[in-house]
Amino acid sequence: NRRILDRAKFVDLAMRSVEDALIIAGVDGRIAFANRRATEILDSTEKELFGRDLLDLLAEVEPSSPEPGRDLLVRLVVDRAKIEREITIRGAPSRHFTLRMAAVCSGDGRPEVRGIVASLSDITKQHELQQTKNDVMALVSHEMRTPLTAIQGMSELLAQFELDPERSREMSIAIHDEAKRLTHMIN
Question: For the whole model, what pTM was predicted?
Answer without folding.
Answer: 0.70
